[in-house]
Amino acid sequence: MQGVHGNLGLPGGWAGLAILAIFATSIIIGLSFGGSGTQAAAAAGNENWRVAEPVTYENLSVFPVLAKNTADTSAFATLDEALASGDAVVSEQGAEMIRRSREGAGTPDYRTVPLRESGAQVNQLVLVNRGKRPLLLLAGEVISGGKQDRIIGKDRIVPVGGEPLPLNVFCVERGRWSVASAFVAAKMMAHPSVREKAAVAQNQSEVWATVQAGTSSNLEASSRVANAAPALSADALRELESTEAPTGSYVKMYGSPRVKGSVENFAQEVERRFARATANLKDEHLVGVVVSYGGEVAWSDVFASQQLFERYWPKLLRSYVVEALARPELKERASVEDAREFLTRAGGHERAESEPGVYRWIERTQDSFADIELESLAPKTMTLHWLKVLRTN
Known about the structure:
The chain is an alpha+beta fold. It has helices at 12-24, 37-48, 79-85, 192-201, 204-222, 234-244, 250-254, 257-277, 306-326, 336-342; strands spanning 26-31, 49-51, 55-57, 60-67, 77-78, 88-92, 96-101, 109-114, 124-129, 135-137, 141-144, 150-152, 156-158, 165-171, 184-189, 285-293, 296-303, 349-355, 359-366, 369-376, 382-390. The protein has one domain. Helices cover 32% and strands 31% of the residues. The model is unreliable at 1-44, 97-118 and 215-237 (pLDDT under 50).
């Protein structure tokens, strides 16, 4: 990749920001799964979830997760919403910086201030939240533009009115390192195999390898299911890669007409069945899903409210579908009991990070499983998002 081996250090101002970010985040490593207040609250939330019968299509089964109690999550903005409205701005490090004007009172006035070229970094961008609501980021969300497309590295909350934030990301466009356009929301979530490498492994090489490994298999599989075209030959696959995504762009590859059509056909059928299955809930709220491929329960996303789940559901579903297209079509089916067992929190090694008064991030790993909990600390304490993954090799 061109330009990656340039100046990877932070200029003077950014060095200060990085130090502030480190001091603002308290890191706790190696805790056992015990009885802290956060863990007790998490366990209680798990006990209140009910897993309903799955919605199944082809090799994908989606189990609704229901809860009797739900939180008010309207105080939070999603990344897609904030980028679309201009409330969030993302830029390459060193290209420009968004500063808050000190002039006047009331709502802060953010202005773009050019900086000297300092060398952008693959795994770090700059984000400022200039809106009126805290910003929720989920690992695996795709942002497009800049020198290359990236995905968010981990779940976190960005408070209102803060200084420009160094943002950890992973590249999903290995063959480009040149400024194209301003960053925009791709309205895509990387499929679970890629998302796991960002959220859990937190390793750029593994992210790249998983994107590349999944490309051909996903394209070929996508032609076999969901009423798609006949199977693509190896030559046709290579031609599609070279014409649709010569830089290895995740966005362009999975947004290409051939692939997107198959994904949409598949997703719309699941969407239709899922809406029908969850249409008449009584005294319960739809807050998440557990996902299985064939008989293997592999992923779950659970939120604090039905409203928050519904805001993410369209792109989450399409990410599950992309994963399904890459996996063999097996006749086995996971049971409700399998899905319920999957919702049990991992009980092994734990590490946590927190930004005082903003959020707490907790990861638990045990054997082949990992779960990640994002807890908001304001305006009140609640688990905004919880995911669990069956880790792949």
